[in-house]
Amino acid sequence: MAMILNEEQTMLRDAARNFLASRAPLSHLRELRDGGQEDGYCRKLWQEMADMGWAAIIIPEKWGGLDYGHTGLGLVLEECGRTLTPSPLISTALLGVNALLLSANEGVCSHWLPRIASGEKLLALAFEESSQHRPSTTTTSAQPQDGSYQINGCKQGIILGGSADAFVVSARTRRGENPDEGISLFLVAADAPGLTISTTELLDNHRGATIRMEDVRVDRSHKLGPLHGGWPILEQVLDRGRIGLASELLGIAQETFERTVEYLKERKQFGIPIGAFQALQHRAAILFGEIELCKSVVIKALQAMDEENPDTPILASLAKAKCGQVAELSTAEGIQMHGGIGMTD
Amino acid sequence: MSEIQDTFRAEVRVWLEGNCPEEMRQPYGSEKDACWGGRNYTFQSNAQRQWLERMGGRGWTAPGWPKEYGGGGLDREQLKILKQELARINARPALYSFGISMLGPALLKYGNEEQKRHFLPPIVRGEIRWCQGYSEPNAGSDLANLQAPAVDMGDHYTLNGSKIWTSYGHFGDWMFCLVRTDPEAPKHQGISFMLFDMQTPGITVKPIKLISGRSPFSEVFFENVHIPKFQQIGELNRGWSIAKYLLTHEREMISWTGLSQTGMRSPGEIAMEIIGGDTGKLDDQIMRSDIARFEMDQMAFALTIERSRDEVKSGISLGAVSSWFKYYGTELNKQRYSLLMDIHGNEALAWSSEDSDEQVLAKDWLRTKGNSIEGGTSEIQLNIVAKRILGLPG
């Protein structure tokens, strides 16, 4: 597949850009933050996004979705990165929906996906147990008990966990030789008895959550995918999540870079635009190239998902690592090259 | 459409099976296995000669050039198929040639009909090896400052002055050269583009020894060299446009050094062999992360070249981006060799061995220092990116 966007994808991206520019520019995030809004995102805005089909981009048509593919969702995430717009796109439309789709649990999919597509329900993925990213070393346990499972354990670092109607939880159902053997996935309702949620406001005004589960009962119909076979599904969900995050990071890197280049042309010192100085020109030129690399790894990874390319895992790690590195570089260089104004809120 | 392509693929496959010698399907043993052709070239083997004659005869050393100039006359889809089929059997390139990668495209664009018919076919067949006369002692990064004067003598030009950093100048049969034809005009507007035989009386070539101990470059001196007027290409005093066009091709060509080449092993594989490790995980943690970072950047660069090709096909022009490719590709290649030096430990210090000096890593490593200098320094490329792509002033 040629590494360029088709017409439908270009239209989706442009529509997303226009919508976000008018409804959720950067000031939207500041309003949420300064208004002390508890959810960390605007429910009304999410409903508008859902009405445009954003919650349902990768959901198949039979479950009320658009079936526009991973590239489509990636483009919308990239645009949201440009405006730093907080929404359940990542927690639900990306992570939650992929977990359900990959589990191939028809009952769960036919109940939840149409409700997610309409914007009515939200999901969150609960798989981290420490501050370090080690998804295979889960200690949360799920014991079979009269047709259901009893879950005990604690999960942290859950994106938008405080707003979720249900969690996709990874739990150990069997001890194996390898840490990644014997993990199963479950869909656990947020209001299940024994489940408590605490939320944290994060540096970027997003919301994280920790959940504690004490003897939480989950019906076996809510097991996602095969028993003991949750790990390969979780790995795929995480790869898709990495690529989605890389798209968002690409948006952040590009927006910062473009604003910085504009500033270099406007800001005058010593009687000339500071962009005429070679020291700054070279830094900008290097950054330009790094962003070109990011554009390539992101579109390749997005297309790999749509084509079910077996190289998707390595492309996912490449995209996430590269875009993470470059978004940091772009924002740090942006602050420095803006001088004093770069330090202001 | 696809039926025609399938037929073409089948034809190519049959032809390659019958015509690509087995020996030419093996990875390179050394740099000498790369065939550059030319009047004085000594073929390494009969197979190497046959492979060049057959590919050149079919026009497939320059498969995209028009048939009337000796090329293959293939369209875009056919080019892709030929490339895939060559890769499928691990065929070595039949010919490395500045004539094909640099001069040819400029001749096709700026040459007149007679010049194209005269100069292009021998390039395709690998009969004439070309070298490039661009830089001068006082015209490096400031290339347009070149001075070598070519004076109009009625039926010919007389060239004096000198060139420096001429790649493989001492192997070149002919030179394509930038000369000054109007010393009064602003510097970009008095330059012309000329071709001449290196055996013309008045030309002296002196190889330059580099820190690698090798001499891939030469100095070339001109003393009243006669150049027939037929050998001046394009409009007189408008040679700078040709130079810029040609430089785009040179940059693109040099940027390939950043990619892993056919038959080249990755630093990761080499490190596993030399340093070792259990269950596919390298023993040296710091080296592992250095290698991972390098290989990531190399993958991202390869994908960016792929994307840029797709964009060119869909009508988005490449333009100044070639400067960035040159910059990044050469910086990557320097990193690769620096990593390889680290990986090889004290073996990397070897300078000459009793067997051969072909494979001495330290020499290759030192050679890469030149990658970010030749063909326009990294700093010049970044200037071009800043001004022509980002639109920064000054």
What are its keywords?
heterodimer; A: 345 residues; alpha+beta; Butyryl-Coa Dehydrogenase, subunit A, domain 1; Butyryl-CoA Dehydrogenase, subunit A, domain 2; Butyryl-CoA Dehydrogenase, subunit A, domain 3; 3 domains; four-stranded mixed sheet; four-stranded antiparallel sheet; 10 strands; elongated; B: 394 residues; 11 helices
Question: Would you give an account of this structure?
Answer:
The complex is a heterodimer of chains A (345) and B (394). Chain A is α+β, with helices and mostly antiparallel strands and 345 residues long. Chain A has three domains: 7-121, Acyl-CoA dehydrogenase/oxidase, N-terminal domain (Butyryl-Coa Dehydrogenase, subunit A, domain 1, Orthogonal Bundle), CATH 1.10.540; 124-228, Butyryl-CoA Dehydrogenase, subunit A, domain 2 (Beta Barrel), CATH 2.40.110; 232-343, Butyryl-CoA Dehydrogenase, subunit A, domain 3, CATH 1.20.140. In chain A, 49% of the residues lie in helices and 18% in strands. Chain A contains nine helices and ten strands. Chain A has helices at 7-23, 26-34, 43-51, 69-83, 89-103, 106-117, 230-266, 278-307, 312-337; strands spanning 123-126, 141-145, 148-159, 166-172, 183-189, 195-201, 207-219, 223-224, 268-269, 272-273. In chain A, the strands form three sheets. Chain A has a four-stranded mixed beta sheet. A four-stranded antiparallel beta sheet of chain A has the order 2-3-7-6, with no helix packed on it. The model of chain A has no long low-confidence stretch (mean pLDDT 96). In chain B, helix 1 crosses helix 3 (76-88). Chain B is 42% helix and 14% strand. Chain B has three domains: 2-96, Orthogonal Bundle (Butyryl-Coa Dehydrogenase, subunit A, domain 1), CATH 1.10.540; 130-237, Butyryl-CoA Dehydrogenase, subunit A, domain 2 (Beta Barrel); 259-389, Butyryl-CoA Dehydrogenase, subunit A, domain 3 (Up-down Bundle). Chain B has 394 residues and is α+β, with helices and mostly antiparallel strands. In chain B, the strands form three sheets. Chain B has a four-stranded mixed beta sheet. The radius of gyration of chain B is 22 Å and the shape is globular. The interface between A and B is medium-sized, with 31 and 31 residues.
